[in-house]
């Protein structure tokens, strides 16, 4: 028996699709199977479209939040705090990849100290190094000698020795930077900055995996999850070993009267994260060091482009998905913000109030508070953002307090 005809005699398409009057039973079976498959695919497409419509409807209730502000203002740090609050497990999963950043922060800070010493060391005489050595005795220096009493000549010899002993560690600066960026550099980004794109944590591990796979010895073992733990990244392991060996040299450099003198005279300016990790070098240089949450919050790596982070936030018994867009704040990165302005619900503008005595890394003539104010004015007057809620987040108040207590004056 033939199935009822689908093919109307009047419709030209139906007429064209009409089976041939000479169709065999085998051909008829094949045709019916093809029709059933086409119907299944068509229904699948209808289902997908329905699901997409539902998803878009759901997304309409989502909150889109932009974190804006100049470089170093603390946007990614704020994002990490959201992550800690709403997705703490995800921070745990990426904990190991922060070791690379922290080691890089330490090595890069040492490199900066030594290159500043290069410039100023010769111009300092004994009287110039006006550092109170009692600080050195109380902050746990492991140095057995009291070099400051020996005068500038001895100081220069000590620094030359430290420079020599630390040079293999300093030489890893570029390799660590490459591990984080995957070899991508951003032009005009200021001195030795390392920019990372969204998802760098997983890529850092992938980069390490690539290196491990190429090694013939097979000494690196895969962990239970089938992934090589970042601690097994040979580079990170090697830097860890070097840090352990150099710990007392790092302490000696960090506590050296010439270094302290340059800092007191503000000829050597260290970023807050440099001081944080150098002060705590004993812990960071320990074998099997794992970054604490506080370490992750202090670690510094610049954001490239825009990184999206999603969190399910429960507000008054209703779960709302938040899309947090963490942007790169350096001048060369700001053009990437605009495509996100269109459907943003809110902006948190992060302004570091402690930056009154600092200048932009990408433009050393511009004061950071001036830049922040200019940027905020531009955001407030942008027509695309006229319906967007704006939160001004005055950040780094702890550093402002510390600077004012030290006697730094705010002046125009
Ligand atoms: N002391 C202190 N440090 C902070 C605070 N907020 C951020 N930081 C530190 O400032 C540094 C820069 O912070 P990030 O969050 O990386 O800055 P960002 O705005 O994301 O910078 P870009 O990605 O370059 O745009 C990090 O080392 C943070 O630990 C704060 O309130 N107090
Ligand atoms: Mg950032």
UniProtKB/TrEMBL annotation:
Entry's Gene Ontology molecular function annotations: G protein-coupled receptor binding; G-protein beta/gamma-subunit complex binding; GTP binding; GTPase activity; metal ion binding
Gene3D superfamilies linked: P-loop containing nucleotide triphosphate hydrolases
Binding site for Mg(2+): 303
Keywords attached to this entry: GTP-binding, Magnesium, Metal-binding, Nucleotide-binding, Transducer
Pfam families according to UniProt: G-alpha
Keyword Ribosomal protein set for record: no
GO cellular component: cytoplasm; heterotrimeric G-protein complex
Any one biological process term the GO annotation gives: adenylate cyclase-modulating G protein-coupled receptor signaling pathway
Disordered: region residues: 1-33, 129-154
Residue positions binding GTP: 297-303, 395-398
InterPro entries registered for this protein in UniProt: Gprotein_alpha_su, GproteinA_insert, P-loop_NTPase
Keyword Metal-binding: yes
Protein name, as recorded: Guanine nucleotide-binding protein alpha-1 subunit
Organism of derivation: Coprinopsis cinerea (strain Okayama-7 / 130 / ATCC MYA-4618 / FGSC 9003)
């Amino acid at each position: 028996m033939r199935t009822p005809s689908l093919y109307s005699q009047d419709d030209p398409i139906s007429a064209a699709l009409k089976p041939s009057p000479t169709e065999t039973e085998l051909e008829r079976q094949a045709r019916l199977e093809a029709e059933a498959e086409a119907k299944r695919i068509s229904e699948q497409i209808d289902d997908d479209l329905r699901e997409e419509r539902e998803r878009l409807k759901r997304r309409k209730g989502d909150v889109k939040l932009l974190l804006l502000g100049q470089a170093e203002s603390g946007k990614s740090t704020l994002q990490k705090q959201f992550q800690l609050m709403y997705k703490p497990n995800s921070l745990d999963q990426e904990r190991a990849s922060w070791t690379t950043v922290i080691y890089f922060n330490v090595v890069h800070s040492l490199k900066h100290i030594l290159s500043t010493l290069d410039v100023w060391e010769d111009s300092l005489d004994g009287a110039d190094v006006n550092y109170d050595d009692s600080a050195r005795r109380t902050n746990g220096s492991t140095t057995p000698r009291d070099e400051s009493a020996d005068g500038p000549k001895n100081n220069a010899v000590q620094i030359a020795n430290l420079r020599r002993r630390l040079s293999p560690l300093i030489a890893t600066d570029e390799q660590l930077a490459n591990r984080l960026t995957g070899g991508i550099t951003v032009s005009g980004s200021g001195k030795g900055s390392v920019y990372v794109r969204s998802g760098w944590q997983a890529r850092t591990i992938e980069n390490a995996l690539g290196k491990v796979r190429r090694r013939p010895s097979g000494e690196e073992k895969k962990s239970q999850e089938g992934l090589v733990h970042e601690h097994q990244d040979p580079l990170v392991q090697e830097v860890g070993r070097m840090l352990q060996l150099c710990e007392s040299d790092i302490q000696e450099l960090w506590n050296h009267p010439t270094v302290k003198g340059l800092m007191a005279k503000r000829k050597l300016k260290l970023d807050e994260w440099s001081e944080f990790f150098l002060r705590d070098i004993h812990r960071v240089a320990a074998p099997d060091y794992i970054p604490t949450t506080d370490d992750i919050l202090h670690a510094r790596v610049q954001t490239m482009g825009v990184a999206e982070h999603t969190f399910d936030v429960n507000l008054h018994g209703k779960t709302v998905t938040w899309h947090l867009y963490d942007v790169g704040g350096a001048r060369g990165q700001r053009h990437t913000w605009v495509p996100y302005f269109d459907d943003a619900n809110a902006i948190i503008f992060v302004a570091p109030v402690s930056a009154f005595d600092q200048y932009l890394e990408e433009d050393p003539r511009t004061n950071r508070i001036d830049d922040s104010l200019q940027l905020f004015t531009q955001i407030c007057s942008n027509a695309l953002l006229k319906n967007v809620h704006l939160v001004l987040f005055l950040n780094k108040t702890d550093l402002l307090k510390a600077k004012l207590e030290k006697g730094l004056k705010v002046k125009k």
